[in-house]
Design goal:
Layout: E1 4-7, H1 11-23, E2 27-33, H2 40-44, E3 47-52, H3 63-73, E4 77-79, H4 89-98, E5 101-102, H5 107-114, H6 116-125, E6 133-134, H7 141-151, E7 155-163, E8 166-171, H8 174-192, E9 197-201, E10 207-215, E11 221-233, E12 236-242, H9 249-265, E13 270-278, E14 284-290, H10 297-304, H11 308-316, E15 333-340, E16 342-343, E17 349-350, E18 353-354, E19 357-359, E20 370-371, E21 374-375, E22 385-390, E23 397-398, E24 405-413, H12 416-429, E25 431-433, H13 439-446, H14 449-453, H15 460-464, H16 476-498, E26 514-519, E27 522-531, E28 534-539, E29 544-549, E30 557-562, E31 565-574, E32 577-582, E33 585-592, H17 594-600, E34 614-616, E35 621-626, E36 633-634, E37 639-645, E38 648-653, E39 658-663, E40 670-671, E41 676-680
Parallel strand pairs: 1-2, 1-4, 2-3, 4-5
Antiparallel strand pairs: 6-9, 7-8, 7-9, 10-11, 10-13, 11-12, 12-15, 13-14, 15-24, 16-17, 18-23, 19-25, 20-21, 22-24, 26-27, 26-33, 27-28, 28-29, 29-30, 30-31, 31-32, 32-33, 34-41, 35-37, 35-40, 36-39, 37-38, 39-41
């Protein structure tokens, strides 16, 4: 076994690999760019080597710099994680020439299956059903448009070396094909150092289901069930679960056996994933193979008890698999939610900055749940468990140079319904401040009827949130529970304020029992009867709720019991009440005396400033190009400029017809959120 392992990656996956290496007694080496000097993976590793400036194409994907780090550290093996150099055959070849083990598949398998074009040709030659498309290289945008018309819109434009949603665009017409080809090409070059593009038919009602395979260099290969990855946004997975609520055992076995056969056909060893598109009749079509560890591997670990990182390391060391197909059992249900640094209220645009608060829910499982059939972790056997894979910490910064993922929050439970409920509570308990993030959206998905039913496709987000995410409107029962809780919390805060020291004699203030709670446009008049165990909150219609809590003023997380059910609220302070976040809703809750509530109805509403004649920068980013000039008339939907952030190019378009009066930024300028880019007459 190796004595020292270098992780050629960053963020949460680097931290994840370090945990397993530490468990195996293997020393670890981190690499880092200038932007990651204070990153979590650097502090977790036994040693760290600096490799260059922040942009990945000047640091993390420069093979020579990574090889220098290997020589400096004396590492015997390299784990590439996912992204960056994980599917780069030249990197595997360089390691082989240096006599360093690659914790991944052989170079030939990477070349055969890691390249999306080559893998499809191999699959076709093996009589595997594939999605119609053009597998040859495409030279320019004109050829892309021609091919797109031959295939028939809509089409998917994809980077051959792509992964993680980078370098991918859906085109519904010639203009989008032309724009998508160039943007995909640029993103592919920046993210992978390879700008080759191919085009395939976009299937409009697919489910994305993938099979986890594990092979060694002795001819053994197994599959470890499937992962349902249909909930995606911009081709980037958001929610994953294992097993799939859609597959039956016969389809699972057929997909698994085909995936293993395909892996063996190219001499595959290590962990890998074969992705399929599955239609409503359970017909499945080979999509691509990812010759690396997947982002969503934790859900497979949770239901099988197999540490995939450990197995990869053992296979790289020449060991044979000790697990047979008969040993693989799927126990319970696991769900993963990806926490991204992106603002759902701004159409999920990237958000960067300092994490002023980062408090994940308490973990009860930091790795596989079942080992050799025995329960592992801190949760009692058979009860829900929480796992959080992350690469950040409170006080750290989210950089504009890398992927926006902050953490992968996972729950396991005996049933799918229990795993979903555990995830709801975990999301409510996850405290993140300082940046925009998608926790509210994830909470909304967990409560969505279509997700709960398991009847979703890759079009779920586009269909259910066509106008973007604007928050959640809570049902009245939930509002009543929150209103009762806030009234009880406000009473506690008021009592504390009456006990302030140094007050004048004969000026003691009494805390009343009657309050009016307003939230989400509704008003509830309540009366509070408190005792040492909690409060009974009675509404004006006679209904009541019993609220028990250990919350004290200043706590930003309130864990309450309302009528015997748990309720977790994120609590902020606003004048006369609280900012409450729960289940995807962001509420201003005011708790007033009846007289204060009466006067509040007379207050004029403050209106936001008029920005209708301005193009504001929706995210922190870099201006790539400006497509208009001063004095030019623009039409609705016309491209105005392109902003790059977190390796993604975003084209900003005109919302209505107008004439450009002033341009305040040009290519190369770095802008903050709401900076004015263009002004109109």
């Amino acid at each position: 076994m190796f004595n020292k392992l270098l992780i050629a990656n960053r963020g949460e996956i680097a931290c994840r690999v370090i945990k397993t290496a530490r468990k195996m007694g293997i020393g670890t080496v981190a690499i880092y760019s200038d932007a990651d000097r204070n990153a979590l993976h650097v502090s977790m590793a036994d040693e760290a080597v600096h490799i260059g400036p922040p942009p990945a194409n000047q640091s993390y994907i420069v093979i020579d710099k990574v090889m220098d780090a290997i020589r400096q550290s004396g590492a015997q093996a390299v784990h590439p994680g996912y992204g960056f150099l994980s599917e780069n055959a030249k990197f595997a070849e360089a390691l082989e020439a240096e006599g360093v083990a690659f914790v991944g598949p052989p170079k030939g398998a990477i070349e055969a299956m890691g390249d999306k074009i080559t893998s499809k040709k191999i699959a076709q030659d093996a009589n595997v059903s594939t999605v119609p498309g053009y597998m040859g290289l495409i030279e320019d945008a004109d050829e892309a448009v021609k091919i797109s018309n031959e295939i028939g819109y809509p089409v998917m434009i994809k980077a051959s070396a792509g992964g993680g949603g980078k370098g991918m665009r859906i085109a519904w017409n010639d203009e989008e094909a032309r724009e998508g080809f160039q943007s995909s090409k640029n993103e592919a070059a920046n993210s992978f150092g390879d700008d080759r593009i191919f085009i395939e038919k976009f299937v409009t009602q697919p489910r994305h289901i993938e099979i986890q395979v594990l092979c060694d260099s002795h001819g053994n290969g197994i599959y470890l069930g499937e992962r349902e990855c249909s909930i995606q946004r911009r081709n980037q997975k958001v929610v994953e679960e294992a097993p799939s609520p859609f597959l039956d055992e016969a389809t699972r076995r057929a997909m698994g056996e085909q995936a293993v056969a395909l892996a063996k056909a190219v001499g595959y060893s290590s962990a890998g994933t074969v992705e399929f598109i599955v239609d409503g009749e359970k017909n499945f079509y080979f999509l691509e193979m990812n010759t690396r560890l997947q982002v969503e591997h934790p859900v497979t670990e949770l239901i099988t008890g197999v540490d995939l990182v450990e197995q990869m390391i053992r296979v790289a060391a020449g060991e044979a698999l000790t697990i047979t197909q008969d040993d693989v059992t799927l126990t319970g249900w696991a769900i993963e939610n990806r926490l991204y640094a992106e603002d759902p209220y701004r159409n999920f645009l990237p958000s960067i900055g300092r994490l002023t608060r980062y408090r994940p829910p308490q973990e009860t499982a930091s790795g596989p749940m079942l080992v050799n059939g025995k329960w592992q972790g801190d949760a009692p056997e058979g009860e829900a468990a929480v796992r959080n894979d992350t690469g950040v910490y409170e006080g750290g910064e989210i950089s504009m140079y890398y992927d926006p993922m902050i953490a992968k929050l996972c729950t396991w439970a005996p049933t799918r319904a229990q795993a979903i409920e555990a995830m709801r509570v975990a999301l409510d308990s996850f405290e993140v401040e300082g940046i925009g993030h998608n926790l509210p959206f994830l909470s909304a998905v967990m409560d969505h009827p279509k997700f709960i039913s398991g009847d979703m496709t890759t079009a779920f987000i586009a269909e259910e949130y066509p106008d973007g995410f604007e928050g959640v409107t809570l049902p009245e029962d939930d509002l009543r529970h929150i209103a009762a809780s806030c009234a009880a919390m406000h009473r506690v805060a008021e009592i504390r304020r009456t006990r302030v020291s140094g007050r004048m004699d004969n000026h003691e203030r009494k805390v009343g029992t009657d309050w009016v709670v307003t939230l989400q446009g509704q008003e509830f008049a309540v009366t509070i009867d408190a005792d040492k165990d909690g409060s009974t909150v009675t509404f004006d219609d006679g209904a009541s709720s019993r609220v028990a809590s250990v919350w004290t003023p200043g706590d930003q997380l309130a864990v309450l019991d309302v009528d015997g059910s748990p309720l977790v609220l994120k609590v902020g302070k606003v004048s006369g009440g609280f900012r409450i976040r729960n289940r995807g809703a962001d509420l201003k809750v005011h708790v007033r005396t009846p007289r204060q509530a009466e006067l509040a109805t007379l207050m004029p509403e403050k209106l936001p400033p008029d920005t209708s004649k301005m193009l504001l920068c929706p995210m922190p980013g870099l201006i790539v190009k400006v497509d208009v000039e001063v004095g030019q008339e623009v039409q609705e939907g016309q491209a105005l400029c392109t902003v790059e952030a977190m390796k993604m190019e975003n084209i900003l378009r005109a919302e209505k017809k107008g004439i450009v009066a002033k341009i305040n930024a040009g290519a190369g300028d770095s802008l903050a959120v709401d900076d004015v880019i263009i002004e109109f007459e």
